[in-house]
Amino acid sequence: MHLSIFDWTHLAALAAMLMAAAWHDTAERRIPNTLVLWGSLTALGLSLSPHGIGLGSALAGGMVGFLGFLIFYLLGTVGAGDVKLAGATGLFVGNPDMLWVNLLILLAGGALALVWAVLSGQLRATWENLQSGWMHIWPKRRHEQAHRPRTFPIGRVRLPYALAIGLGTAWHVANTWPSA
Known about the structure:
Elements: H1 5-28, H2 33-47, H3 55-74, H4 80-93, H5 97-119, H6 123-137, H7 139-144, H8 162-176
């Protein structure tokens, strides 16, 4: 099955949003709201097309992306721009595919975090963060560690998570969309 002009337009708009977000996040450590707004409006417009995924699927996908990463924002592991970008990505991908995309983004983020920690010399601090976090999350250890203060030795170098969002989404698209 070949991709239609509509499919190419959909992919190009999604790729443009994700690449621009990755560039901004890497260069400036922020994702512009105007970029996410542009992507969201484009995705919603495409969803309304007779060839689109439908407004309901787009909105549900956007909510899955947004709420899925809002949890990580509240835990302090991603930024607000990452949450909004995941929501905008969900508007393109739709529901139920965004559930899988969220999982792929998390896998890509884990792999990138490991590479990033090694390249930035933050591997030890990353390992200490993981240990400290698990001690407070794991129920059996929570009681034992209640008297210890919760500290995370955050380094100056942080992973631009838009890269993980782009890679996880690309992984999904490469495995689900028909080839040209």
